[in-house]
Amino acid sequence: LGKKADSRSLSLAHCDLTATDLLELGTLLQFLPQVEEMDVSWNELIGGCLAALTTHLRHVAGVRTLRLCSCRLNADDIAALGMVAALPRLCVLDVSCNDELTQEVDSGGFRELAASLSHATSLTSLRLQACGLTADSLDALGTNIYFFQVLPSLTTLMELDVSSNKEAGGVVHLLVSALPLMQMRRLPLNSCYLTAAVCRRGCLSSLRALDLSYNSSVGDDGWCALFAAGGLGSLEDVDVSLRPSASAPCSAWLPALLRALPQTPALARLAMQRWTAGSQERQQLSYCLRKRSVLLEWDPVSNQESPEESQPEE
Known about the structure:
Layout: E1 9-11, H1 19-28, E2 37-39, H2 51-54, E3 65-67, H3 75-80, E4 92-94, H4 100-103, H5 109-117, E5 125-127, H6 135-143, H7 147-150, E6 159-161, H8 172-178, H9 196-199, E7 209-211, H10 219-229, E8 237-239, E9 248-249, H11 254-260, E10 269-271, E11 275-276, H12 279-290, E12 295-297
Parallel strand pairs: 1-2, 2-3, 3-4, 4-5, 5-6, 7-8, 8-10, 9-11, 10-12
Helix pairs in contact: 10-11
């Protein structure tokens, strides 16, 4: 059943599932006790009907991964996700690309999500990419002690993906403050319109991968502050690339990066695509990274624009 010939995987993404299909699928779960991965993403016709599936989740208590991307989930669907409590081994929950959730904040979308998550004690990865998170919605939820208060209870959480939420940058510090700091490994924040003030807080010292790409709003002062603030010791992968249509000089903050490199002994990859620099600066950074076998992803010199010709990122 599904696209993978594997009794442990139930992959029905991009299958044009309907509410009727979801109901029939739910009744079949009792015959699939070995399923560990369930993916019904990109089926926009099942929005509002998720309860037809979740009421049967008790039959597949071994599920470790549940993906529900771009299913037009609403507050009722998220309330139905309260059944994740019946999945004691659930590690990955992905509800990305469901921007209707934030459109229904007042009717309880994220409030219900927080209530559901409080029971997901084995969760290691929570993905909320492109869910239309806004500063107002998250701040309101924080004030009402729902979403932010449940995060500390997720003691096994290692990844929180809030990338591509263009208005969430202003409350990133609230998210970070609420996270279980010691075991966080990945915090994708690309395309979140981060500010310099957020970057001054530095990184979580436990992070291994930090994606800050497509955040030109940080500005030179922000990048300088980020590398000066510390907390980089565990980082293995850092991405500060600009969008493909943009370019900008990095001369103002490159010295701060160079000073921070000795404090990043685990660094294995640094992506700086679309940033421009003079030949001497490029050579200096390349030399520092080459002697440590760090992969540097930077546009070839022939594609670099001079600072005078660089285009600001929108």
